[in-house]
Amino acid sequence: MPDLGHAALLTGFVIAAYTAVASFVSARGRVGELWLSARNGVYAAFGLTTIASGALLYGLLTHDFRIKYVAEYTSRSQSPLYNFAAWWAGLEGSLLFWAWLLSLFAVIVLIQSRRNNRELIPYVSAVTMALLAYFLGMMGFAMNPFETLPVAPADGMGLNPLLDNPGMLFHPTFLYMGYVGFTIPFAFAIAALMSGRLSTDWIRASRRWTLFAWFALGLGNLFGAQWAYTVLGWGGYWGWDPVENASFMPWLVGTAFLHSVMIQERRGMLKVWNILLIIIAFSLCLFGTMVTRSGILSSVHSFSSGSAGPLFLALLTAVAAGSLGLLWLRLPALRSENQLDSLVSRESSFLLNNLLLVGAAFAIFWGSVFPLLSEAVRGVKTTVGPPFFKEVTGPIFLALLLLMGICPLIGWRKASAENLARNFLFPSGVGVTTGILLFALGMRPLFAALAFAVLAFVAASILLEFYRGVRARRRSRGENYAIAVPRLIWANKPRYGGYIVHIGVILIALGVVGSQMFATNVEATVKPGETIQIRNYVLTYQGLTSYTEGSKEIVAATLDVQRGGQSLGNIVASKSFAANREEPRTDVAIRSDPREDLYTILSGWSEDGSATFKVLINPLVMWIWVGGAVLLLGTAIAFWPDARAEERLPVTERVPAKGMRPSHA
Question: How far is CA 299 from CA 245, 292, 304, 362, 511, in A?
Fold first, then answer.
């Protein structure tokens, strides 16, 4: 199986490289027979990458410890589910997972494009296959996941204890789907530049791919935040670690792109900006993969190091330089068809939204790489911690939230004073009243009251949009509210799906502001029968219990919880020790409700039975996870196929494809 897997990688590299060249040549020379060969090459590359992936999975699930990768990331006592997840746990396996996803997405694009995008799709295949060839070449010649050991050990090391968690099944997979998913809109943008078809065709063709990649990356970040919250045992969900930042930056730039393409489609503006945004987003995806798997930046999330750094840097440099050079050559053909008519318009608010999103991404990027640059230039490694990111990005994100409420209320081209007064009266009244009321009730700091006021303003603006749409349906069709609301959403899925996504963002922001501004913690060492008090909670320490679960030794502490004199039952905080690992894993005890989380960490213990606990109260954290579910719902609605969008396509985009002309035609 190792020989089969490695042979599949090498053969796949040759096929992918051939397909990239054949796709490009067939597009430039309009050679139909060569394009048919290239299409078959895409399917063959997917098949070979699948064979290689299957060979590695077979080794992972059957404990083939001859394979070095299998010995490093699986063990006989590890459950089959986590042995499967070892596919993406290390450098070589995650590269294979990356390549397999890319080959799968390339096949899906071909199937989707049987009836349209005939001018663009050969170039798209050329880009995706060139990238696939690079990844297969990396594995085939430098980082072979099928490298064998001289002597197979009796058992493997298994996953790092921090990875032995259900989050391992969701967090990395969704991040990689997001990273690889951004390859497709990037490929369409490059295809537009290569072919000269610089209208909105490439945007329409890749819109749902962009939404999919953006959503997968966002969901991956939320899964990672929940994982960190429950496993790492430090009381938070986002530590501004370089790897966390690396997956957040392309999401921010992707958000900017999803908003700015609306201006190009409606007004023919920002053509250069939109292509630049998707180039930056994909480059940041490559940067995120490099940071995670090269060890180039110090991170608690980076579990690999080695030769990947220079190879990823070479790829990132080639992608950035090549795509920006191609964009430079096409600049004369990318002139805007219109200009901004007024600073008080939806176009202006979207543009400001874009600048803030990109500014936030740049600030995070600078804070992440500054320690590396400082060490390279001055020889001194400077630490950039969470305070920097909070102080720099906090005002930017607050301004973005405010714009999220302003944009829907301003008309296109130029808003009249009458329009502004009519649209802003209700939301502004709600926001201002909320801020004044919270401040009068003693909410401090001022930034918290301001943030909640902005969230109330945005919520009111979205509610106003829904109310106007429902009212229009009631007047024109006589529908009651229970029928009008779902039909309104379904009749304009992109618009109202987007509003539901905004509601999800509001709920996430609510949880972030509450937990960051009003968290409380206490640390204490207690003996059995003694209590810890924090706010209106009283925790009574019951004692320690030690037991074995599989190959792990677990030490658990039980506490009785009372709030306001009412018993809430027992909670258990523990640490587990894997047989082949020195570092224990922390399993925190969390009692959660819509108002706050009681978060308890077992920090240590003594032979006399006493134990040290860190107890936190994190307000409103539940709304982060609820907001994620609402964001999922809104994205699903916006992603759902819209029959009206198909009807709006030009006839030439909807007729069945008959293939490209042969070379002699």
Answer: 11, 8, 10, 19, 25
CA-based radius of gyration for the chain: 27
The region that residue 543 occupies, defined by phi over 0 for left and psi between -120 and 50 for alpha, beta otherwise, is: left
Count each helix (H run) and each strand (E run) in the chain, helices first: 21, 9
Beta bridge partner(s), residue 611: 526, 605
Closest CA to 305 of 315, 317, 290: 290
Rounded to whole angstroms, the Cα distance separating 617 from 235 reads 9
Sheet architecture: strand order including 585-587: 531-534, 537-549, 552-563, 566-578, 585-587
- Count CB neighbours of 375 within 10 A: 12
Q: Check: CB of residue 420 under 8 Å from CB of residue 446.
A: no
Helices (H), 537-596: none
Whether omega before 445 lies within 30 degrees of 0, making that bond cis, reads: yes
What are the chain's domains? 1-159 (1.20.120), 402-516+624-639 (no CATH), 520-622 (2.60.98)
Q: What is the largest CA-CA distance in the chain?
A: 91
Helix, strand, or coil (residue 572) = strand
Mean of the pLDDT values across residues 394-411?
89
Confidence of residue 457 (pLDDT cuts 50, 70, 90): very high
Mean pLDDT (whole number) for 400-404: 93
Confidence band of 370 (pLDDT split at 50, 70, 90): confident
CA dihedral of residues 599, 600, 603, 604 (deg, nearest 10)? -170
Backbone angles phi, psi at 527, to 5 degrees: -100, 160
Task: Give backbone dihedrals phi and psi of 545, rounded to 5 degrees, phi first.
Answer: -135, 135
Q: How far is Cα 132 from Cα 99, in angstroms, rounded to an integer? A: 6
Mean pLDDT of the chain: 88
pLDDT tens-digit map of 514-553: 999 999 999 999 999 999 999 999 999 999 999 888 778 8
Sequence-distant (≥ 6) Cβ neighbours of residue 206 within 8 angstroms? 184, 185, 188, 189
Q: Nearest CA to 99 among 215, 181, 8, 180?
A: 180
Q: Do the beta carbons of residue 292 and residue 258 sit within 8 Å?
A: no
Residue 480 burial (C-beta neighbours within 10 Å; 0-12, 13-18, 19+): exposed
CB 439 within 8 A of CB 433: no
| pLDDT, tens digit, 9 for 90 and up, residues 165-196 | 888 899 999 999 999 999 999 999 999 999 98
What are the residues facing 520 on neighbouring strands? 617
CA distance 267 to 284: 28
- 240-253: b or e for each residue (b if 16 or more CB lie within 10 Å)? bbbbbbbbbbbbbb
User: Distance between terminal CA atoms of the chain?
Assistant: 47
Distance of CA 262 to the CA centre of its chain: 22
pTM (2 d.p.): 0.91
Which residue has tokens 């805007």?
Answer: 336
CA 203, CA 25: separation in Å to the nearest integer? 24
Q: Give mean pLDDT, residues 42-61.
A: 96
pLDDT tens profile 72-114: 999 888 889 999 999 998 889 999 999 999 999 999 999 988 8
